[in-house]
Amino acid sequence: MQSTPQAHPNEEYTLPCAEALLAGTMALMTGHVQACCGAHREAMASKIVSNLTALAEDPLLSPGFKTLLWALRQRWQNQGQGAALAQLPATERSLWHGSPEAVQ
C-alpha cells in the first residue's frame, strides 16, 4: 500500500470563492510592493484591479464592503495609470503645453 505525501497544513486552504479571491488579491498587493521591475508591477496592478472588480460585484458581500472594494479599485486603477504614465518617455507624456524644439 502506497501512502500519499501529505501537504504541509499551512499550505493548503479551503476557502469560499470570495475569500479565496480576496486572499489572492492581498498576495498580489504584497507582490506589487516587493516587485523589482515596472513591467511586473504594472501587470500585478492590472490583476489587482480585475480582482477587486470581481469582488465588488459578488452578491454575497455586504453593501459597505462593496463600497470599500470599489474605492480600493479606483485607487489601484489610478496607481496603475500613474505608473504606466511615469514609464513613458518624456516626449510621449501628455502635457498642458508642448515644449518648443529649440530655445532661442
Structural description of this entry:
By secondary structure, this protein is an all-alpha fold. The chain has a domain at 17-86. The chain is built from three helices and no strands. Helix 1 (17-34) packs antiparallel against helix 2 and helix 2 packs antiparallel against helix 3 (63-87). The radius of gyration is 21 Å and the shape is elongated. The termini are far apart. The mean pLDDT is 78.
Helical content band? 55-70%
Distance from N terminus to C terminus (CA atoms, Å) equals 88 Å
Uncertain parts: none
Largest sheet: none
Shape: elongated
Kindly state the number of beta strands: 0
How big a fraction of the residues is strand? under 5%
Number of helices: 3
Oligomer: single chain
Estimated structural class: mainly alpha
On the 0 to 100 scale, the average pLDDT is 78
Query: What value does the Rg take, in angstroms?
Result: 21 Å
The secondary-structure element order is HHH
In short:
The protein is mainly alpha-helical.
List keywords for this structure.
single chain, about 100 residues, mainly alpha, 3 helices
Helices and strands in order:
Elements (H helix, E strand, L loop, with lengths): L16 H18 L3 H19 L6 H25 L17
Helix pairs in contact: 1-2, 2-3
